[in-house]
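Appendix B. Raw example, untouched.
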Amino acid sequence: MKQSLPTVDPFMAIADSNRREILRLLSYEAYTINDLVGNFKISRPAVSKHIKMLEAAGYIQVSEVGRERHCVLSQDGFLALQQWIDYFDSFWKSKHKKLELLLKKRMEERAEK
């Protein structure tokens, strides 16, 4: 039975450049952990720790196939990140719309004078 991983903040998980690079690599294809290690100048245990954090944050899924562990992207972490970005995107759109209306009103007031 697979052990449950603690939840990790999606932003903490992508704060490290090595973890962002792992995500970038996995966007092209699935990798085994051994294959991922060959792309970094850090130890296998260090890559494994990054993998565990990305998995706990919902960015990747790791499955065991024989003696190898295969990593693929998962949508969960990205969805949490997108929801946060969407909130502020909506916030800024609202602020820009209010500014646009204010400027339009001021231009109309000047045109009336």
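End of appendix B.
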